[in-house]
Amino acid sequence: MKPSRAKRILLIFILLAVVSPWLTRYDPNALFGIQFEAPNWQHWLGTDQLGRDVYSRLVVGIHRSLILSGLATMLAAMGGFWLGIFASHPRYGFSRFLHAIINSLLALPGLLWSLVIITVLGSHANAIVIAVGTAQIAPFARVIYAKALSVYRDEYVLAARAQGASELYLIPAHILPNCLTVMSAYCAVIFSQSILNVAALTFLGLAGTPGVADLGVLLNEGRAAILQAPWIALSAGGTLTLLVMAINQLSEDLAAIP
Question: How confident is the model at residue 34 (pLDDT cuts 50, 70, 90)?
């Protein structure tokens, strides 16, 4: 996918999420009584097994997925940044301990961790954000650790420390600016992974209330009726594919920034 095309696709999805209340012609949970109606001028993407408008549910699902995944990405970035910074610091006595924690968490599958958090906290929206976000902290911390470790060894940082510069000065003045490119690029990767993880949890029926408009729920409902109403699975699956491809292309563009 070309970079300019990916950015346009991502912008369209963001606009859909922002203005979704004005783009849905019907209530996403309204029942129209016609099951599996094919796409037409009244229902642009047809109806599902309960007679609900698929287009309205898809737009609301995009909105929900982007919001939950964005919050999860912010949680992962904040936690992963500081964990990676402290683990990479050459003078902190507990840096090796934090590095061992990061490596231990990386050995744990992220989806399994999310399932544990969902089981403990419940299936509400806040629990989904915490489950998906905390599962991405260790990968983010590992990236920041590698980058910060190299910055700490640069000559200008060693010279600043030799002149008496404190960590309160070094981190915002040298460490953070040199990690921004890596952080922004990997945030996009975490964002795309969060979208897939949120969809996976709702697809399995382990997150969200029954009947909620979500891309994973739509994909699951479409899977059950793939032969009878293929437009349900195709619309949800195609949306997820395009969204993740566009975000991954954005991460490549950000990584290319010098």
Answer: confident
Q: Which runs of consecutive H residues, i.e. helices, occur in the chain?
A: 3-18, 20-23, 54-88, 95-106, 110-121, 125-135, 137-152, 155-162, 167-170, 176-203, 215-224, 230-255
Which tens digit of pLDDT belongs to each residue from 217-231?
Answer: 999 988 888 888 898
Least Cα distance to 43 among 240, 235, 252 occurs for 235
Question: Rounded to an integer, what distance in angstroms lies between the CA atom of residue 170 and that of residue 176?
Answer: 9
228: CB partners within 8 A, 6+ apart: 36
Q: CB burial class (10 A; 0-12, 13-18, 19+) of residue 155?
A: exposed
Residue 152 has pLDDT above 90, yes or no: no
CA–CA separation, 44 and 49 (whole Å):
16
Where is average pLDDT lowest: 79-83, 85-89, 145-149?
A: 85-89
What pLDDT sits at residue 141? 93
**How far apart are the C-alpha atoms of 75 and 71, rounded to whole Å?**
6
How far is 244 from 206, CA to CA, in rounded Å? 22
pTM for this entry: 0.87
Predicted local confidence at residue 251, as pLDDT:
83
Task: Please check whether residue 217 is in contact with residue 202, taking contact to mean a CB–CB distance below 8 angstroms.
Answer: yes
| CATH homologous superfamily, domain 48-255 | MetI-like (1.10.3720.10)
